[in-house]
Design goal:
Elements (H helix, E strand, L loop, with lengths): L1 E7 L6 H14 L4 E4 L2 E3 L3 E3 L5 E3 H10 L10 E5 L4 E6 L2 E7 L2 H23 L2 E5 L17 H7 L3 E6 L5 H10 L3 H4 L2 E9 L3 H15 L3 E6 L26 E6 L4 E2 L3 H6 L4 E6 L2 H6 L2 E4 L1 E2 L2 H10 L2 H10 L4 E4 L1 H6 L2 E4 L7 E4 L6 E12 L7 E9 L4 E3 L2 E4 L2 E4 L8 H15 L10 H19 L2 H10 L16
Parallel strand pairs: 1-9, 1-10, 2-9, 3-6, 10-11, 11-12, 13-15, 13-16, 16-18, 18-25, 19-21
Antiparallel strand pairs: 4-5, 6-7, 7-8, 14-17, 19-20, 21-22, 23-24, 24-25
The protein binds glutamine.
The site of glutamine has 13 residues, from strand 17 and strand 22.
Protein name: Cobyric acid synthase
Keywords: Cobalamin biosynthesis, Glutamine amidotransferase
Family: Belongs to the CobB/CobQ family. CobQ subfamily.
């Protein structure tokens, strides 16, 4: 049984990518490997075959590993509904709401479930590759941590710290990440990975050598800047944007960037077509002018509806619909295109609301969350049950009136035939090019996972890393000052 925890000097250092690449690389060596992240904070999630909801990143990592995605791979998922509150999904199911403060007191229960999930996975797989969150050296949170060093201590796993060299300061942050941990935690930090490097590797080498001598720990590899290795978009909203200048040759797709946007991985399927240019926007002019407008999923339909109105975007959407110009609403975006929105159980703050009235649809928020896989690529994650209450044509998971489409399903456009048919119709309406029908979303994802594993193979000392995974941490020196005293 082998184990490794990939931590990061910062968020966005590339932990998710590295874990994904390692999962695919290990799977290729014939290793039965599972990904794991004790706690993920994201509004991008996925429904597993057994109905459990997990973070989208862990789902993709499982796909990379050739393992069946399951709740234990991401036992705690926090879905932020506001800056201070999160909806908690525990072992794939809704658990309740947590405030930033309440979180400290509830952590023990979540930690227990997360460790049990890890132990269960570890009993069924040869290797588990865990992903930390943020930095392992958030010294104010160390005591109640179960995602980074708290987890590493529980499982006695070696930890490799990934740093983003593109942002600069990578040596100082790697050194500091080790030096501000106590001796027991430092003993598990086994080395580093430099990520997002562009430039001349020979210029970097002296720095790597100095880091080794300053910390007594090796750097396992230097991964190059690989922006083309897009996976499903992660939490950074800038990821899926593939903007080519407003050319007559492409179909421009504006996606409203709701403050509580969720499951925006739906846009990846649109972005894979070279005939499309997909971009996020909050501008009424862009909403008006794009060839296709998408209202994506939302964690908080009612408050994003209010926001849409306050931004002057509601009129822009209505103007498009009146002019017969294409609009697609997905899940929360579908709900708010409809009329009545009622929230009798206070799921989203309660009350009766009125949507944009552009589709004959009424939504009632149910206390129970719907988690379902209604079709091959489609999945449902919502409380609001949308019912067609007037004249409308059929559309999978929703309905259509004129050139306004809505669906409660996510992932609908991951289905190549459906995406091609939908875009061909939009292209006919707008006089823009239609997709040629050759792009396979699943094949593209597979090839990217493979190229990520190729990069691991090429740029990482995989022999040394395998040794670490199999045999655990080796003795590394203590770097003063260690964990600062609480004051
Ligand atoms: N995934 C979504 O867009 C969810 C929409 C809405 N917040 C609901 O729960 O029904």
């Amino acid at each position: 049984m082998g184990s490794l925890l990939i931590a990061g000097t910062t968020s966005d250092a590339g932990k998710t990518t590295v874990v994904t690449g390692l999962c695919r690389w290990l799977a290729r060596q014939g290793v039965r490997v599972a990904p794991y992240k004790a706690q993920n904070m994201s509004n991008n999630s996925m429904v597993c075959a057994d109905g459990a909801e997990i973070g989208r990143a862990q789902w993709i990592q499982a796909v990379a590993a050739g393992a069946e995605p399951e709740a234990a791979m991401n036992p705690v998922l926090l879905k932020p509904g506001s800056d201070r509150r999160s909806h908690v999904v525990l072992m794939g199911e809704p658990w309740g709401e947590l405030t930033a403060r309440g979180f400290l007191t509830e952590r023990a229960e979540l930690a227990k479930a997360a460790f049990a999930a890890y132990d269960d996975l570890a009993s069924r797989y040869d290797v588990v590759i865990s992903e930390g969150a943020g930095s392992p050296t958030e010294i104010n949170l160390r005591q109640s941590d179960y995602v980074n060093m708290g987890l590493a201590q529980h499982i006695q796993a070696p930890v490799v710290v990934v740093g983003d060299i593109d942002r600069g300061g990578v040596f100082a942050s790697m050194f500091g990440t080790v030096a501000l941990l106590d001796a027991a935690d430092q003993a598990l930090i086994s080395g580093f990975l430099v990520n997002k490097f562009r430039g001349d590797a020979s210029l970097l080498q002296p720095g790597i050598d100095m880091l080794t001598s300053a910390t007594g720990r090796p750097t396992y590899g230097v991964l190059p800047w690989l922006p083309e290795l897009w996976l499903d978009s992660e939490d950074a909203l800038d990821v899926p944007v593939r903007r080519t200048s407003g050319s007559a040759e492409v179909l421009s797709i504006a996606v409203v960037r709701f403050p509580r946007i969720s499951n925006f991985t739906d846009l990846d399927a649109l972005a894979v077509e070279p005939t499309n240019s997909v971009f996020f926007t909050t501008s009424p002019a862009e909403v008006r002018d794009a060839d296709l407008l998408v209202l994506p999923g939302s964690r908080a339909t009612v408050s994003d509806l209010e926001w849409l109105r306050s931004m002057g975007l509601a009129e822009a959407v209505a103007g498009r619909v009146a002019a017969g110009r294409p609009v697609l609403g997905i899940c929360g975006g579908y709900q708010l295109l409809g009329g009545a929105i009622s929230d009798p159980h206070g799921v989203e703050g309660g009350g009766e609301h009125t949507g944009l009235g552009l589709l004959p649809v009424a939504t009632v928020f149910a206390a129970e969350k719907v988690l379902a896989r209604p079709a091959r690529t489609a999945y449902e994650i919502h409380h609001g049950v949308a019912t067609v209450v007037g004249e409308a044509a059929e559309f999978p998971g929703g309905c259509r009136v004129g050139n306004t489409w809505g669906t409660i399903w996510h992932g609908l456009l991951d289905d190549d035939a459906r995406r091609h048919a939908f875009l061909t119709e939009v292209a006919e309406l707008t006089g823009k090019p239609a997709p040629d029908g050759t792009v396979s979303f699943a094949a593209l994802r597979e090839s990217r996972l493979d190229r990520l594993a190729d990069a691991i193979d090429e740029y990482v000392d995989t022999a040394a890393l395998m040794k670490l995974i199999e045999h655990g941490p080796t003795a590394s020196p203590f770097i003063p000052p260690g964990a600062p005293k609480t004051v």
